[in-house]
Amino acid sequence: MMSEARSGYTLPVFACASAVAALNYLQDKQPLEAVEIDLIKPPQQVSIPIEQIALLEENKALAITRSDPGDNLDLTANTPIWAVVSLQEKPPVEEAIIIQGGEGVGKQLNRDGKAAIYRYAKELLQGNLQPLLHPNQQVTVTIILPEGKQLAQRTSNAAFGVVEGLSLLGTTGISQPLTAPGQLTEFQEELAQKAQQFDTLVFCVGENGLDLARKQGFNPEQLVKTANWMGPLLVAAGEQGVQSLVLFGYHGKLIKLAGAIFHTHHHLADARLEILTAMGAKVGLSTDLLQKLLASETTEAALKLLREQENGGEMVERIYSAIARSIDQRAQDYIRKHAEKTVQVGSVLFDGKRNILTVSPLVKQLFPDFEM
Question: What is the model's pTM?
Answer without folding.
Answer: 0.62
